[in-house]
Every structure is written in C-alpha cells, then in structure tokens.
Amino acid sequence: MTVKTLSELLECNCIAGHGGLERPVTGGYIGDFLSWVMGRAEENSAWITVMGNINAVAVALLADVSCIILCDSAPLDEDARLRAEENDIPVLTSSQTAFALALSLGRALGRC
Amino acid sequence: MSNKSSVEPITQQYVIPGTDFTRAGEASSKVKTILKRLGYDPDAIRRVAIAMYEGEINMVIHAHGGTAKVEIFPDRVEIALCDQGPGISDVSKAMEEGYSTAPDEVRALGFGAGMGLPNMKKCSDDMRVHSIIGKGTDVYMTIRVRGTGN
Asked: How much is the ipTM here?
C-alpha cells in the first residue's frame, strides 16, 4: 500500500512532502519520544504522533519511516513543514486519535 | 586491527553545533546521502543514520556540540564522535534504557527518553565510550555492512 492510498483510507490531509506519497507502507508505530521511534519503528512504518517539530521530520528521514501522521489535529511547525517538503517526507494530519488511526491502519494492512 | 583497514576510507568530518536542535541531524543526513549514492546496503545505512543522529543529539543536549569523523570502508563505517562537554559520570548507567539526565525543555522536544546511547549500541556492531569528567566524551562506533561476507 502507498502512503497516498493510506491517506485516502484514513481520510487524512497531506500537508507536506507530497513527493513521497508513492512510498510503501508496511507497518505502523505510535510514539512521541523520538529515540523510541528510532529504536523501535520499522522501516516503511506509518508513524502516528503528536510531535510536529523539525526533529520529528529528521527522525522520519533518518529512520526511513514512510510518513508522519499527526493525530488529534496536532500542529506542524513551519520549519518542519519546509524540511518535510525538501526531503519528500509526507506529513498527514487527522482529527482522529492515535488509537482510532492505528485501528484503521491495522485494518488497511490486513492485520486486524 | 583487521588488515582490511589498509583500504583507504572515504573520510568525512563535521562540526556539530551546540544548542541548535534545528540543525541537529544535518551531518547524519549528509552521511546517509553519501552512503546511498555509494550503493550501500539499506539496513547498514539506516543503522549508521540512527546511531549518528543519536550521537549528534547527545552532543547538542549535553556538550554544546562537538565533532564527528566518519570513515567509510567497503565493509564497514566507523564513526568517531568527540566532545568537550562535562563527561558522563557513570557510563554503564547511561547505557541503560530509560536513564536520562536531559532537562525538561529537551524532553518537550521529544528527546531525553534515555534511549540515545542504547540505540547507538543497538545499531552498532562495536561501540566504545571514553569519558572523562570535566574533559569530554569520545564515542567510537563501527557499523558493519552485513551480507558482504566480512
């Protein structure tokens, strides 16, 4: 599944990094502490978080997650948006909770 | 020391600026780009990127920056991170998951979970930490390219 397809299924808005929408999504991870994400998230995970700062984008880039999903309408900082654009890291937003998004992601991936 | 060290590495050196979280990760990103261009194994690239970024962040949080030297060999990447910060009083404690001395404002940015050094160790095939209180800390990491038969 691509990030684009996932974004449509989860009814998210893509607010940055449109160039990465064709990246594959094979799993998911939820967390706000950046080192936990780097240590535990698998490559090509959709990363659900409230952390919309520039460091989150750096983590997404370095840890090869496929996209950032900002849950609970968490905001994205402007410098983070620019970094995501530069590096084609898709940032999706949703008003849903992390739990609701994870359920939908799990269904979309056939895991539940 | 392996005789493979006789191969001339590609060497990169970076200055990690202190207290600037917005620039942390620039050196790691550059190394990642170089390794990708050279066609290294994606798993090795990811481990190098994560290990080095954690090191960068540690130097920004605790040591007002430092230097990073990266040597790229055909079968491995060696990273030396050196700072002149306060040093680590108990290295074995700092290696424990969840142990952190990071201040609250750093935690608000998403760091300071006490996973930095453990992540660096997890990503490395070999890691050594030399720290002297009041003088600084040097971290040496070797990340091997798996599947090369080396």
From this structure: 0.88
